[in-house]
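Two folds, back to back.
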Amino acid sequence: IKLERLRFYAHHGVMEQERRVGNDFEVTIEVWYPFEKALESDNLKDTLNYATLYAIVEREMAVPSELLERVAGRIIETVKNEIPEVTAGVLSISKLHPPFKCDMPNGSATVTVKW
């Protein structure tokens, strides 16, 4: 399952103003799990409900952190604990408007973690 470009307004950043004012973030998460039964059954109990995966990301994005790496770590820890069927994954978190003194019309600062 892959959830792409989930948008959140959150309060992550090293600078106090970033944590106070907040910023726009984008999250993409892809997880691997055994889904062979679902290929034939058409039954939700035989797969991973992507609404559960979204709820984990949403919950962890709401907890302020200084580092995007820590946010990623919390999301991964929670996925592993709450969905033990997940065997691997890739997670990217992008800060869409980092506090740089340059024009970044389509740029971002991104952390990507594979596990």
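---
second:
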Amino acid sequence: PVSKEVAYEMAKGLAFSSNCDLAISTTGIAGPNSDDSNFPVGLCFIGINFKGNITVYKYNLSGDRKEITEQGTNLAINLAINTIKNI
């Protein structure tokens, strides 16, 4: 459930199912512990789908669960804004 491919498919599916121009997906391990996948806490993938162009970003965030979630949210919003501005 935590991978580049999952973030890609989530962004693709969301845009398709809701007929929107912009879709944002996030998947990762916020902690406090890793799951059975053994991926490190803080691993985060963010997918941005803007008008069918999908880009996935990978981050290794740090902090506690709240901090990691907040960082991921802020990154996703900023990536979306920058994507819209640059197209």
